[in-house]
Amino acid sequence: MKLTVVIPTYNEAENVPKLIPALRRALEGIDYELLFVDDDSPDGTWRIVEEEQRKDARVRLLRRVGRRGLGSAIVEGIRAARGEFVVVMDADFQHPPELVPLLLREAERGAEVVVASRYRQGGGVRGWSLARRVISWGASLLAYLLLGEARKTSDPVSGFFLVKRGLNMEGVEGRGYKVLLEILAANPGAKVAEVPYVFSPRAAGRSKLGARDIADYALQVIWLSRPLRFALVGASGVLVNLGSMALLLSLGLPVDLASLTAIELSIAWNFSLHELWTFGSGFSRGVLRRYLGYHASVLAGALTQYLVMRLLYTLLSLNPLLGQLIGVFAGFLLNYALSRSLVWR
Ligand code: GDD
Ligand code: MN
Q: Distance of CA 32 to CAs 86, 98, 202, 220, Å?
């Protein structure tokens, strides 16, 4: 089978009966299936799909009960797809059915991800409020600034895209609203193409994009951003560093020994979290080499920490804990740059 069109639906009973014939027309001559992923819509969207399925074997229904979420619906749809290529689109005609064959054409020319883009020459949005424009623009900007993968497309928050089946879907969970970004992140080498289109107002029904989805999205982008994960781990390491130093000082250890021990503890802590989370190596082969490499890369930062603390303590009699904290900040940027270029590359 050439193509699966995955259509997540929630309360689209008015749109689905029109969408199916429109897609049928647009996809004439192509071997395809339409896969609706419905989260048990209260308005009975799934019942309409079920009926169509009885008449036309190319229509399939994946009805999820007790679960909800656009992102996870899309991911489940992609996983269940049988086509060589998979297009994901809204059910509400905001994504024109006529565009699907154009996405497919780009894929047959070799692209593995094809994004339908509102922000390419010839694309655009119709009938959006200023607020909605600002949100969409802000979401794109956030992704652009934080995620390298987002820079491969002019519309990183597009909900209308094609992926070639067989792309790596490991780690793609659809936690937030933005599956496309997750897929791009999981496939750094994928060839990406774009097709412009105009995003128009909904044919019927209401948008399900709410304030919560926007917050989810921002969290997801942060989660995907390696520099930010690195910074979060570093922040937790600061707590370990200062916490253990306070403890050691209270046990009566001399300042220098307390400082250096606390620094080493925080290095071990950070390293473990970078293995598990930031870089995801999971203590796999070569962990010892990486542990030593990490020490080499943080050595300058650690020395900076210690020396700044020592200097402030000697010269200004500054509280050693406060001095250590200031030292931590001085060493942080250095650590990131060195880890990235020397250890995990
Ligand atoms: N199964 C399932 N579960 N489907 C859902 C859910 C859900 O929880 N929430 C929404 N959908 C379906 C809708 O029925 C629709 O077919 C599609 O997913 C997109 O939802 P909309 O409510 O129409 O979203 P939107 O139009 O506001 O947002 C669109 O544009 C954004 C870009 O500005 C979507 O295409 C987004 O993906 C896109 O980022
Ligand atoms: Mn929509």
A: 10, 14, 25, 32
pLDDT digits (tens, 9 = 90+) for 238-257: 999 999 999 999 999 999 99
The residue whose C-alpha atom lies closest to atom 28 belonging to ligand 1 is 209
Q: Which residue has the higher pLDDT, 78 or 181?
A: 78
How far away, in angstroms, is 84 Cα from ligand 1 center? 24
Q: Give the three-state DSSP class for 124.
A: strand
Tokens of 130: 């200023």
Answer yes or no: are the C-beta atoms of 132 and 200 closer than 8 Å.
no
Q: 0.85 exceeded by the pTM? A: no
Cα(195)–Cα(118) distance, rounded to whole angstroms? 9
Strands (E) in the chain, as ranges, are 3-9, 32-38, 59-63, 85-88, 113-117, 124-125, 161-164, 192-196, 198-199
Is beta strand 113-117 parallel, antiparallel or unpaired with respect to 32-38? unpaired
Percent of the chain clearing pLDDT 90 (strictly above): 70
CA distance 161 to 103: 8
Instruction: Using most ligand atoms within 8 A of CB, pick from 9, 46, 93 the residue to mutate for ligand 1.
Output: 9
pLDDT for the residue numbered 176? 63
Q: Nearest ligand to the C-alpha of residue 38?
A: 1
List pLDDT tens digits, range 168-177: 998 888 876 6
Atom of ligand 1 nearest to the CA of 136: 33
Q: Is 202 exposed, middle or buried (0-12, 13-18, 19+ CB in 10 A)?
A: middle
Residue 328 burial (C-beta neighbours within 10 Å; 0-12, 13-18, 19+) = buried
